[in-house]
Amino acid sequence: MTTLPHMIANVGEILDIEDDVNDAKEGSGFVQKKAPDEKKTNKALIIKTSGRHTMYLPSFGLVEPGELKPGDMIGVNKESFMVYDKLPAEYDSRVKAMEVDERPTEEYSDIGGLDKQIEELVEAIVLPMTQSE
Length: 133
What we know:
The protein folds into two domains: 6-89, CATH 2.40.50.140; 95-130, no CATH class. The chain has two helices and five strands, in the order βββββαα. It has helices at residues 93-98, 115-130, and strands spanning 6-20, 39-49, 54-57, 73-77, 83-86. The longest helix has 16 residues, at 115-130. The chain starts with 5 loop residues before the first strand and ends with a helix.
């Protein structure tokens, strides 16, 4: 069984990070000199993954910083947390099908002739949810 290399996360915050322009990137071979007080503003993300982790990402990955805002759903790599794509805001159809809009009005007494199946349903699903012991 293989698992997909990505997971869903939500954008928590988008941070402005100021870097000194005079700092050279390690191994770049050159230093760009600017005024001593000049700062370069980069963006960073704080995301909340579907695995309930909160992560700080100093780079956005494959998505431009201007495309995201707090609350957006994104696809990220499970290991590197690189942002792959901004996901649509609408619900996944499988999740939408499992939502309960209103409480059902049917009762077990409305179902006739399935006493054994009702008993199995109560033992397997209802009792563990209502009585954890």
